[in-house]
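Quick one, T. Sequence first:
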Amino acid sequence: MHMNNNCVNKTEDVFMDKSVVNKINALIHRDPFHECGGIFIGNVSADQVTGKHTVHVHDLYFEERLGTGSTFEFTTDYLMNAVKYVKKNCPEYHIVGNIHSHAQFQAFWSGQDKEMMSQARDNSFYMVVSPKYGTWEAIFKDIDFNYYHCDIKIADDTCCEYMFGKSVEADEMRSFRNGRPYQTVTYRVNRSYTDVQQTISSLDYGAFWKEGFDCRCRNCW
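Structure tokens:
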């Protein structure tokens, strides 16, 4: 798979609950000399008009498992345990991707990472982080194996149920052309946000990340 050939010059929105940020820090800093990984839990929506995806990451499932200094594998039993966790604790959500660390190396998409992302035909959100260098990369893959840059925002836990509130309205305009009645229809997408969500984009969400995990917008490539 050649990810660069499938990279779309488009950015998808990712809203991550603050509790997930805390879990990520707990995961990657407990042993920064070994790779580790966790499973993202949440929902993915697609705008029916624009096709734009929105990811809401509600929770992070992880175990006390460590890889080597340069590898980590999401085994079948690890994934099955995550599925059981979702069914028991948050059945209204789904597995939407994963995150893993690169221990003492920079954050980048390795050959193994690319192979892992190519195995499932689904919409998924992926992150790789480096606890040593404080760097990270994020990417969204759609069901057709197109890859997108990600704009990550920290969401308020209390308002995530309204994350995908939207409606589509049609504006009709009637006129005459060459003496005959003529009608055009323009569709507009309206999104409903709470007061907290309306201020998300202005948050200094770097304050939510511990030292060593510098949260700032980065290109995926």
